[in-house]
Amino acid sequence: MAISKKQVEAYNKSVYSLYENLQNxxxxxxxxxxxxxxxxxxxxxxxxxxxxxxxxxxxxxxxxIAKRTGQSVPExxxxxxxxxxxxxxxxxxxxxxxxxxGYFKTAPLPAQSTPAFQRIVKNATAKATDYxxxxxxxxxxxxxxxxxxxxxxxxxxxxxxxxxxSQAVATAVRxxxxxxITGATYISKAGRTTRVNMxxxxxxxxxxxxxxxxxxxxxxxxxxxxxxxxxxxxxxxxRPSHAVWxxxxxxxxxxxxxxxxxxxxxxxxxxxxxxxxxxxDFYPFFPGLSEPAFDHPNVKENxxxxxxxxxxxxxxxxxxxxxxxxxxxxxxxxxEGETAARxxxxxxxKQLREHVAKNDLYRDPSREQIGQKVTAINPPSGPAxxxxxxxKKTPVQPPKAKPTTTEPDTRAIGEAFAGLPAAEAEAVSLIxxxxxxxRAAWNTLAPVLKYDTLTSNAGAWYDPKTRAxxxxxxxxxxxxxxxxxxxxxxxxxxxxxDHLTGSGGVVGNYDYISMTYKGGAFGKALRADVDNVIAHxxxxxxxxxxxxxxxxxxxxxxxxxxxxxxxxQQATKGKVxxxxxxxxxxxxxxxxxxxxxxxxxxxxxxxxxAFAEMYSSVVANPGSLDNIKTFFPNAxxxxxxxxxxxxxxxVAP
Length: 653
Prior knowledge:
three-stranded antiparallel beta sheet; globular
């Protein structure tokens, strides 16, 4: 059984990250020499200074590349060996079962102990290393060319009067971000030259090399067993030229019983099975013993999915482009350009979410990355859990059902989603599959949960005066850019849970359990976690460190990062924030007579917003929950204690 796509991603994650970050490093280094916000006294002097810096830049770029080289080669060798072992595990089970059924009289030596296995893995690793070295050489030259091009183009545009200095620099660095750093150049038979960014070039090489390694190992193992037949895999969305041979049986040598494998699938060629971007595998087949394992998808449906996946690839490419634009603009001091890139980024992420959901596709976050969003956070001190290096995806569909010990009370959900049976079922599924404490706490709230309105066009909130929710159920059921489906319903319900527990059911009491629990333990843990994250960011002072957190918060998908963005904003009183938060207009609109200008100035706003965000994440937003556990481990522990306490004691009626 060939290695799966997900296994390839897992084994080579560190390799991808190295080159994604290397491209960022080089773009940052280039753009740092061209500040849009620092106009020169004369352009002649400016050009002379840039050319004088060229030597130092080349040395720094070579150093950055050399550092990654030392890290990448061992990582590739380790990943390829692991891939080789994994590749043969499934096939070996099939061969042994066939021998038990009398198909083979003898068995060869264990796969990993054969000289052929070692030779194939070693050769694949050597080829990959040679390719990486070529990428390094190309990237260094491309970086030097980019530096010179920006210098010359900016000089000509300003001296000719075409653009102001700031406009010329902003345009040049944006073009560099769009273009990226070239890692490989290909010339077609027709003479057409194609350049590929270094991170994309490395990813393609890794995927193709792993696929070819798997194929070579499988064919070699078939020869060692004395087997001559294979069946190709079949999947919806195959490219049309591959769809003609997928899901069929072939023989490796000859063509007397079945068509020849290499001749029909073009094995060993770029356009064939195991070639460029091919996702097909092949498996041992034993005539007279095996039954065909794959069906042939409908041609029309297959081609439709193929086109949908190609559109997804284009959106992913555009997302990476906007992220590089933001990186380049920030390095060059182009605040306006950075903001524009982040706005466009949010729009593209929304388009991708909608496209994936509409076409029932798998969203692979690694294809949207240009490097790890958070690279400078160390494990928090004390009993906190170790933070993960990168956020995970938000599943498109609700999690599959799993056994529960507490059956959720669905009366309040049924009242809210009356007339929307599909939405009601999905909302019930979420709470049913939530952790035990979340379900038990919900069951104490459900009998007393009330609604002021379910058709609001002014937003959603919990009112402690009426002890009821204001919602727009139809919007909640469909989700939107900031919140996935049903997250808002469980967020506002979290406020009700928090308040009714803390106030003891006393009208006019505005205490929340999140504020009063163990002398304010939740708020203290939240602020300590926030301070810990900020303290581990790169920067000369706390202002730069806060700006760094704001940067990567703003880059994150709003579904996954919206909740933690709001917590950071509340805890720092607006000094750190992403694209989501409780900004001034919310407070002014909802509480026009309040003397406070900012929502986070309200007593307890941090605690009860964080509590509601954690509750909605536990029930309805696993991507956000991963980030909460990563960045607020101590606060999440206190939240869990509070939830268990509520589950045991219940809320006041």
